[in-house]
Structures are given as structure tokens and as C-alpha cells.
Write a structure and sequence with these properties.
By secondary structure, the protein is an alpha/beta fold. Among the domains are: 78 residues, no CATH class; 119 residues, Ribonuclease Inhibitor (Leucine-rich repeat, LRR (right-handed beta-alpha superhelix), Alpha-Beta Horseshoe); 122 residues, Phosphorylase Kinase, domain 1 (2-Layer Sandwich), CATH 3.30.200.20; 214 residues, Transferase(Phosphotransferase), domain 1 (Orthogonal Bundle), CATH 1.10.510.10. The chain is built from 20 helices and 51 strands. Helix 11 packs antiparallel against helix 15 and helix 11 runs antiparallel to helix 20. It is globular, with a radius of gyration of 38 Å. The relative contact order is 0.04.
Length: 1058
């Protein structure tokens, strides 16, 4: 009986799930025990049941632990928002937590061991409850939009091996408790806003292999304790605010392969590198390091593939051991103070891709400085060679013709190079940048230069080149920059140059060129921004048709022998800021068309033979600060406003017949006589004949108008379009109803402040169109509507949405109906490309965003400065920017605010206030709320906000922006603190995906970041709160073009996307 009680005792404490099975076993055995009364058998069963009881306790513990993991995961979920991919929808009680998306459990204990939430666009914060997932081995929250600090509870995850939180918006400091995770092998916190110092305790993490802390806001020094991590292979600390010296203890890291400590404020010398035998990449660029590069580096680091130490204060010679590093691919020591000669055995580096020694003090100024160039013909993979801005002397060897066929950049300028450009230069057929300015090169440009068909930049200015400009240059169809200035070229400009239709900068100044300018040239240079023909001996007149040079910003033709009149079409170069035409023989009058050049800042027409009066319209040019009209034959009144009210900004000497002006000019007063009226008195018969003719003509006009109105009453009122053949497209309400299938919701492609837009197909033309049905609150005003439409129809620009026709009629319910018909844009709106995250194919890379920004700016500039009457858009926003097949941007809804306000104002002033469009929240300028009226500056503000939206991927109305924090302030503050954390994550990811390719070109990544920064600065400057401080739209265009040129030079996005 005693044993029976013991067995009942064990049943009491067994897990409930085992009771049924144990009872089934127990009762038959109980009968057997009592029948046999065998003591040792009873003892055996006691042992069995004891083991069963003990084994049930881990099962209970496992269930309870699983529940803890589930609760921790749910706490994590509570802190996360913006689950656009719907991953977190599976995180609920309907599924076991091990089946939740992104969660992985171990096989044995069913505990959570891996959490992968990478690239889900999640926002919010990481809950401290993560510390309760104690079996975690891998955590990946990278490429999201998480904010807040890294929870200290991460230190509880003793089994953690991999922790990636990179590319988020995390702030705060790195928690000291992280060092408790002694099994961690990789820490990835790249591209956040992490502040504070690097914890010294990280040096205790004996298993750490990779430490990624780059692109943050870390301060302090590099802890010497990191030298204790003998397992470390990757140390990435670049682009922070680290100070102090590089700890010598890092020299103990014998397994280190990648050391990125560039773009900080580190000082002192480069420590010895005796134990870096495994090192593959050393990047210490853009610091304040001084002293010599360790001379033994080529022997102790035999496996190095890349050395980046540019932009420091290093001195001494290039170590002679460098050519021993046979694996070296990139060697960049630019912008330091290195002296001495370049090792002649650099050609031993057979794998070399990039050699950049620019901006040092290399060379002795004696023959032999360039002897190392011959050995580089052994570098069959060489892509970029930069030796410019040194003191290298000598002749370019003919062996340059044997350089790698893959070489793309050749930078040799600002040295003491003599001799000629070798004829064999034409063998380098993949060259896209050739820079040899500021040397002593003489002779002619070799004809073989025409073989370089990929060349985009050719800079040969400030040399002693002579002869004629070879006509073979016309073969360089991709050329964007051509600088041949300050040489001794003679003869005429070759007509073949017209084939270089991509030219943006052409500088032929200060040569001995002569002859006239072929008129075909100016017609070919549609993209030209800078043109300098000054200080030559050109004759003849300027081509009369310059209307194709609409993008011209600076135009210099001074100090030549030009004559004839100044072309009237020069007034169509609306981007023009600088115009120098002095010291020629131009005659005639100053063109009235100059009044259209509202971006002009500086005009010099002095020392010519100009006559007539000074156009009074020049005083209306808002940015003109310097005007020199001296030594001409001008006469008449001098205006008193604008540049003319500044005596120091306006020069007029040598014009004897000028008068008036401000008193400070001390010119004589102007006087005028009314001309005597002359003419014969008309006879009575003549007067009667004229009256009868007028009456008959009036009657005829009335009859025609009456007939026309009756016809229009039956069909509606229309406006023809020049876009269709024959220019006579007419559409009635019925036809618009049919082509949009009754304005069906399936054809609705957008709604906005002005109305709804439907896609339709005009059957007789089989042409897709967009029909905008305007929101109207009043009847009547058809006549004013048509008048405004006719005005809008005259507005034509490549980047404005073209109006095909309009319809003003009555619908079938008797309501007034007004609609505009536009070209259909197949690629939709900029809004959809920026924010439709579910469609991964709709992605704009940075080059495309830059092109769209330029397109929008050109459209705004045309509306403000290129129309007969200024048009203020009033509602600029991404949904009003449409993209065609070629991704060219077209601004829509321009002039509609004025159109609708005009229509409704005909009914009465009491109704107009509710009809005038007031812009869109987030994009409307702050001053509108104070004065209630729009100005061009309001459009510029909206444009600036759009630029910031394009670079950040954030709407100005997103939840992040409230109280005093706006998109503008957010970006402005980031400019001061480091920008990378605000960029659209997709742009950042694109750089990350291509990082391996970027490594092949030093500083490419930094250049791309700088382009991002430049783009953001333009957006901030355009959207400042004070209207008068905003960037002018033409200045924005210039800066955007400069950014694009810089981006194209990186080669990251290939060449022009269009």
C-alpha cells in the first residue's frame, strides 16, 4: 500500500498532458504489484514514474518560454508603424509566432532565433522588449525608417551573432550594454544619426568580425581598445566627426582586411603598418593627417587592393615600396603635400585601375619627371590617371598610345609639360575626359583626336598650341565641354563643330582666330550654356538667328572685329546673365528685345558704334547691376530707374548727345518739340465714302457674328488646336462624353483643385487625350473663358502641358460645362513615381530626378519671364507635374487659377472669393496666409518644397512634420548636421547596391553624396520663409545644371539619361 501511495504522489505532480497515458499504464500494473507483492518491481516503477515526472517540467517551461517570445514580438509590433508591405499582419494569435513573417525559430526548443525585417519601410522605434528574445542569434532591421535610440536591453541577447540596424534614422548613443553580447560577430549601424562616442567596451567583444559605424554623427576618438579585437576583419568608421589620432594599437589587428576611417577630423601621423598583412582596403581620406606615409607599406601590406589617403596634409615621398603591391587596383593620394619623384616602377602594378596623385608637389622641374608614364603601358586595366596640379616636367612620351584601351580619364594639366600632344592619343578610344590645361604644350592638336568619340570633356586651355583647330573635332558628338582658350590657334572655326550638338561650354577666347562665325554653328548649339569667343580677330556680323541658343547663360564676344547690328534674336536667350560685346564695331540700335532678358546681371556694349536711344525697358531688368554703354553714339534721354539710378553701376562716357538721367550723372536736361501737324483736309465726298464703307462693313461683321453664335449654340464653343493636322479639331460636349465613355470612373485619372481629369480617345484621330472638366459654381462667362483659353493656347514650351482644345457648352442637365483637352502623358505624375511604394518598377534614380527638376524650373521660368504677361502658377505640386514617354516633365494646370477667377468674376465680386484657387497645403508659401495674393516667389517656394520632397521621398504633410518642424526646416537642419539620413532610402540603397562598382573609382561615392547635398541646398534656398531671400529660378537652373554636370562626371548613372 505504501508503494501505491507513492505512485499516486507522482501522478499528482506530473504534467496534466501525461495523466491519461500514465493512468492507463498504472492501474493494470497496480493489480500486478499487489498480486505478486514483489518489492523490487515496485521500486522499478517508482523510478520510471520519477523520470516521467521530471521530463514533464521542461515541457511546461518550453510552453511558457514560447509565450514570452510571442509577447516580446507583439511589443515590438506595437512600436512599429508604416507596414506598407503588410508583413506584420501575420503577427497575431491565429498563428504560432514561429510562423510569423520575418521570424525564424530553432528546431529543438521552438524559440525565436532570427528576426529579419530588412527593407520593409518600417517606421517607429525598436521596443526594449527585444531584450526578452534571449535566444536571438540574428537581428536585421536594416533599410527602414526607424527612429529613436538603440534600446539598452539589446545587451541581454547573449547568443546574438549578427545585429544590423543600418540605413535608418536612429539617434542617441551606442549602448554600453552592447558589449555584453560576447558572441556578436557583426555590428552594422551604418547611415543613421547615432551620436556620442564609440564605447571603449566594444574592445571586449572578442568574437567581433565586422564593425560598421559609418555615416553617423559620432564624436570623440577611435578607442585604442579596438586593437584588442584580434578577430576583426572590417572596421568602417568613415563620414563621422571623429577626432584625435589613429591609435597605434590598431596595428595589432593582423586579420583586418578593410579599414575605412575617411571623412573625419583625425590628425597626427599614419601609424606603422607592420602587422597589416591581411589588409585589402585602407581609406583614411579627407582627414587632417600629417607626416609621411609609412615607407614599409608596400612590404608589410602585400595584399592591398585600394589606398585612399587623399585630402590630408601628408608630406614626404611616395614610398618606393608601393610598386611591390601587385594586387593594388586603386591608389589615390590627391591633394596632399607629397614631394619628390613618382616611382618609375609603377608599371609593376598590373592590376591598377585608378592612379590619382593630383594636387601635390611632385616633380623636380627637371627632365625625367614623367619617365614613370612609359611603365604605365603595362597596366592593361588602367581606367583613370590623374597627375595634374603638380610640378612635373618633361615631354609626354609616345608610349601613351599604348595605355590601356579602357582608360576613361586622363588628367595632366597644371604641370611643366612641354613638347606636343602625341599623335597616338587617338588610340585611347574610351577616353571621356582629357585635361591638359595650364602647361607648356605646343604644336598642333593631332588629327587623331577625332577618334575619341566618347570624349565629353576636352580641356586644352592656357597652353602654346597653334595651327588650326582640326575639323576632326567635329567627330566628338558627345562633347559637352571644349576649352581651347589662351592658345595661339589661327584660322576660322571649323564648320564641323556644328556636329557637336551636346556642347554646353565652348571657350575659344584669347587666340588668333579670324573669319566670320558660320551661321550654322549657332543653330546647332541648343544646349550651350557658356560661349566665349572674346579676344580674337573675328570679323563679319553675328548670325542673325540665335533663337536656338535658349539655354545660354554667359556670352562673350568682346575684343574682336565684329560689325553689323546686334541680332534681335539674342533677346530669346532668356537664361542670359552676362553679355560682353565691347570693343567691336557693332552699329544700329540696342535691340528692344533685350527687355526680355530678365536674368541679365552684367551688360557691356562699350566701344562700338551703336546709335539711337537707350531702350527705357532696360530699367525694368530686375537683376541688372552693371551696364556699360560708354563710347558709342547714343542720344536722347537716360532712364532714371533700375540700374540707371546707380551712378557706379551705369557707364555712359563718350556719348555726347545723352540727356536727362539722375542728377548725379550731371547730364543736360532733355527737351522735345511737338511736331507740327501737316496734311491735307479731306474733301466732303471722301468723308461720305469712308462713312458708307464703315457702315457696310459693320453690318457684314454683325451678320457673321450672329451666324457664328447660332452655330456655336448648337455645338458648344471650341478652340482649334495646332497640334492636330489641319489645325481644325472641334469637340462638342457630346463628343467629349463619348470619348471618355460618359466620364466613367474607370477613365478617371486624377482630381485636383481645378477639376477632374479623364482619359479619352478621339476616335477620328485615334489619339489619347486628357480631358479636364473644370469645377464651376457659376453660369455664364463663356466669352471670357474662351478669351483666356486662347491666351493659354499661345503659351508653348517643351516643359508645359500643351492645350489641344477647349469646350464651353451646356451639358444634358442644362448646367454650364467647361473643359480643357490636353495631351495625354503616358507615364503619369511625379507624385505617383515618388510615393507609390507598392509598384517597385516606378522608381526614379537621382539622375532622373535631377532632369525632372530642371524641366520644372525651365517651365516656371518661362511662365514668369517668357510670356507676354507673367503667369503665376499658384498650385505647383508633384501631381501637377506629368511625365511623357521619355520621362520629360510637363507642368500642368498653369494659368488655370487666373482662368477660373476670370470666369467667375464676371458674375459678381461677391462670388469670386470662393472661386480663386489658394494652392495646396504643404506647398503654398507662408506669405500667402498674410497677404492673400500670389507672386512669382510663391511659385519658387512651392518648387523648393518639391525639390526637397524629391530628394527625401517625404511629403511636406507627412506625420513627421508638425509644430515648428517642416520639411524645409528638417532639411535645413540636416545640412548642418550631415545629410545622408534624410535622403530617400531608395537613393541610398542604389549607392549601396553599386558599392562594389564605386570602389573602382575613388571619391565617386563622395561626389554622388555632394550632388545630393547640392540638390538639397537648392531646395532649401528656394523655400526660405522670407520671399525676398529665395533663390531666383534662373539661378536655380544654373546650379542644377552644374550639379548635373558634376553627376555625369562620376559616371555612376552612365551618360545623359535622355
Amino acid at each position: 500500500m505504501r508503494y501505491q501511495l507513492n505512485l499516486h504522489y507522482f501522478f499528482t505532480y506530473c504534467h496534466p498532458n501525461l495523466l491519461i497515458s500514465l493512468r492507463i499504464l498504472y492501474f493494470p500494473l497496480e493489480m500486478e504489484i499487489f498480486s505478486l507483492k514483489n518489492q523490487w518491481i515496485n521500486l522499478l516503477f517508482i523510478v520510471i514514474f520519477t523520470l516521467l515526472s521530471i521530463s514533464s517540467k521542461p515541457a511546461t517551461w518550453a510552453l511558457r518560454s514560447n509565450e514570452n517570445d510571442m509577447l516580446a514580438l507583439l511589443s515590438l509590433k506595437d512600436g512599429l508603424v508604416g507596414d506598407s508591405h503588410g508583413v506584420l499582419t501575420s503577427w497575431n494569435a491565429s498563428f504560432h509566432c514561429c510562423q510569423w513573417q520575418g521570424v525564424q525559430c530553432g528546431r529543438r526548443h521552438q524559440r525565436v532565433v532570427s528576426l529579419n525585417m530588412s527593407g520593409l519601410s518600417l517606421a517607429g522605434f525598436i521596443s526594449p522588449a527585444i531584450g526578452n528574445l534571449t535566444f536571438l542569434r540574428e537581428v536585421d532591421f536594416s533599410h527602414n525608417k526607424l527612429q529613436g535610440s538603440i534600446p539598452r536591453e539589446v545587451g541581454h541577447l547573449k547568443r546574438l551573432v549578427y545585429l544590423s540596424l543600418e540605413f535608418n534614422h536612429l539617434n542617441g548613443e551606442i549602448p554600453e550594454e552592447l558589449s555584453n553580447c560576447s558572441n556578436l560577430q557583426e555590428i552594422a549601424f551604418t547611415a543613421n544619426n547615432i551620436t556620442g562616442e564609440i564605447p571603449v567596451s566594444l574592445g571586449d567583444m572578442k568574437n567581433l568580425i565586422s564593425l560598421h559605424l559609418a555615416y553617423n554623427l559620432l564624436i570623440g576618438g577611435i578607442p585604442a581598445s579596438l586593437g584588442n579585437i584580434s578577430t576583426l576583419k572590417v572596421l568602417s568608421l568613415q563620414h563621422n566627426k571623429l577626432k584625435g589620432t589613429i591609435p597605434s594599437s590598431l596595428g595589432k589587428l593582423s586579420n583586418l582586411e578593410y579599414m575605412y576611417i575617411g571623412i573625419n577630423k583625425l590628425s597626427g601621423s599614419v601609424p606603422p603598418v607592420h602587422n597589416f598583412s591581411s589588409l585589402l582596403v585602407l581609406d583614411a581620406s579627407e582627414n587632417q593627417l600629417s607626416g609621411n606615409l609609412p615607407p614599409e607599406i608596400g612590404c608589410t601590406c602585400p595584399n592591398l587592393e585600394a589606398i585612399f589617403i587623399g585630402l590630408n596634409q601628408l608630406t614626404g615621398e611616395i614610398p618606393r615600396s608601393i610598386p611591390n603591391i601587385s594586387s593594388l587596383e586603386l591608389f589615390d593620394i590627391a591633394l596632399n603635400g607629397f614631394t619628390g619623384s613618382v616611382p618609375e616602377k609603377m608599371g609593376n602594378l598590373r592590376n591598377l585601375l585608378v592612379l590619382t596623385i593630383s594636387g601635390n608637389c611632385l616633380g623636380s622641374g627637371k627632365p625625367g619627371d614623367l619617365s614613370f608614364l612609359s611603365s604605365l603601358s603595362n597596366c592593361s586595366r588602367l581606367q583613370s590617371l590623374g597627375i595634374n596640379y603638380n610640378n612635373l616636367y618633361g615631354v609626354i612620351p609616345d608610349s601613351i598610345a599604348n595605355f590601356s584601351i579602357w582608360i576613361e580619364e586622363l588628367l595632366m594639366g597644371d604641370n611643366q609639360i612641354i613638347g606636343r600632344i602625341p599623335q597616338g592619343i587617338g588610340n585611347l578610344i574610351n577616353l571621356d575626359l582629357m585635361e591638359m590645361k595650364g602647361t607648356f604644350i605646343a604644336g598642333e592638336i593631332p588629327i587623331s583626336i577625332g577618334n575619341l568619340r566618347n570624349l565629353e570633356g576636352l580641356y586644352l586651355g592656357f597652353n602654346h598650341l597653334s595651327g588650326k583647330i582640326p575639323s576632326s573635332i567635329g567627330n566628338l558628338s558627345r562633347l559637352s565641354d571644349l576649352d581651347l582658350s589662351n592658345n595661339k590657334f589661327a584660322g576660322a572655326i571649323p564648320l564641323s563643330l556644328k556636329q557637336c550638338t551636346n556642347l554646353q561650354k565652348l571657350d575659344l577666347s584669347t587666340n588668333n582666330l579670324n573669319g566670320s562665325i558660320p551661321y550654322q554653328l549657332f543653330g546647332a548649339f541648343e544646349r550651350l550654356i557658356y560661349l566665349n569667343l572674346s579676344h580674337n580677330s573675328f570679323t563679319g556680323s553675328l548670325p542673325s538667328d540665335m533663337r536656338n541658343m535658349k539655354n545660354l547663360v554667359e556670352f562673350y564676344v568682346h575684343n574682336n572685329n565684329f560689325h553689323g547690328e546686334i541680332p534681335l534674336t539674342l533677346g530669346e536667350s532668356l537664361e542670359l546673365t552676362t553679355l560682353f560685346m565691347q570693343k567691336n564695331s557693332f552699329h544700329g540700335t540696342i535691340p528692344q528685345s533685350f527687355a526680355s532678358l530678365r536674368a541679365l546681371e552684367n551688360i557691356d556694349l562699350s566701344n562700338n558704334n551703336l546709335s539711337g536711344t537707350i531702350p527705357p525697358e532696360l530699367q525694368k531688368l530686375p537683376f541688372l547691376v552693371r551696364l556699360n554703354l560708354s563710347f558709342n553714339q547714343l542720344e536722347g534721354a537716360v532712364p532714371k530707374k533700375g540700374v540707371f539710378k546707380n551712378a557706379t553701376g551705369f557707364s555712359f562716357f563718350g556719348n555726347k548727345n545723352l540727356c536727362g538721367g539722375i542728377p548725379k550723372l550731371q547730364l543736360p536736361k532733355c527737351f522735345s518739340e511737338k511736331p507740327k501737324e501737316k496734311g491735307k483736309v479731306l474733301s466732303t465726298k471722301t468723308i461720305i465714302a469712308i462713312i458708307i464703307s464703315i457702315l457696310l462693313g459693320s453690318i457684314l461683321v454683325v451678320l457673321l457674328v450672329y451666324h457664328s453664335l447660332r452655330h456655336k449654340a448648337r455645338r458648344g464653343t471650341f478652340m482649334p488646336s495646332s497640334l492636330f493636322d489641319n489645325g481644325c479639331l472641334r469637340l462638342s460636349y457630346k463628343e467629349l462624353l463619348e470619348c471618355t465613355h460618359g466620364f466613367a470612373s474607370s477613365n478617371l485619372i486624377g482630381t485636383g483643385s481645378f477639376g477632374s481629369v479623364y482619359k479619352g480617345v478621339i476616335y477620328q484621330h485615334e489619339k489619347p487625350v486628357a480631358v479636364k472638366v473644370l469645377n464651376l459654381r457659376n453660369h455664364g462667362a463663356a466669352r471670357s473663358f474662351i478669351a483666356e483659353c486662347k491666351a493659354l493656347r499661345k503659351i508653348r514650351h517643351r516643359n508645359l502641358l500643351k492645350i489641344i482644345t477647349s469646350c464651353s457648352s451646356i451639358d444634358y442637365q442644362g448646367n454650364e460645362f467647361k473643359a480643357l483637352v490636353f495631351e495625354f502623358m503616358p507615364n503619369g505624375s511625379l507624385e505617383s513615381w515618388l510615393h507609390e511604394q507598392h509598384d517597385q518598377s516606378r522608381y526614379l534614380n537621382f539622375a532622373q530626378r535631377l532632369d525632372i527638376a530642371i524641366d520644372m524650373a525651365n517651365a516656371i521660368d518661362y511662365l514668369h519671364h517668357g510670356c507676354e504677361m507673367m503667369i503665376v502658377h499658384c498650385d505647383l505640386k508633384p501631381s501637377n507635374v506629368l511625365l511623357d514617354d521619355d520621362m520629360v516633365a510637363h507642368v500642368a494646370d498653369f494659368g488655370l487659377a487666373k482662368l477660373l477667377s476670370t470666369v467667375t468674376s464676371n458674375i459678381g465680386s461677391d462670388q469670386t472669393s470662393s472661386s480663386v484657387i489658394k494652392g495646396t497645403i504643404g506647398y503654398v508659401a507662408p506669405e500667402y496666409g498674410m497677404c492673400g495674393s500670389f507672386s512669382p516667389e510663391c511659385d519658387i517656394y512651392s518648387y523648393g518644397i518639391m525639390l526637397l520632397e524629391m530628394i527625401t521621398g517625404r511629403r511636406p504633410t507627412c506625420d513627421l512634420f508638425h509644430d515648428d518642424l517642416s520639411l524645409h526646416n528638417f532639411c535645413k537642419m540636416a545640412l548642418q548636421e550631415g545629410l545622408k539620413e534624410i535622403f530617400d532610402v531608395r537613393l541610398v540603397e542604389e549607392i549601396g547596391v553599386n558599392r562594389k562598382r564605386i570602389r573602382n573609382k575613388p571619391n565617386m561615392e563622395a561626389e554622388i553624396w555632394e550632388c545630393f547635398v547640392s540638390f538639397t541646398k537648392i531646395g532649401v534656398s528656394c523655400s526660405t520663409e522670407v520671399a525676398t531671400e529665395r533663390l531666383r529660378i534662373r539661378d536655380a537652373i544654373i546650379e542644377l545644371h552644374a550639379t548635373k554636370a558634376r553627376l555625369l562626371r562620376t559616371g555612376f548613372y552612365g551618360r545623359d539619361n535622355r
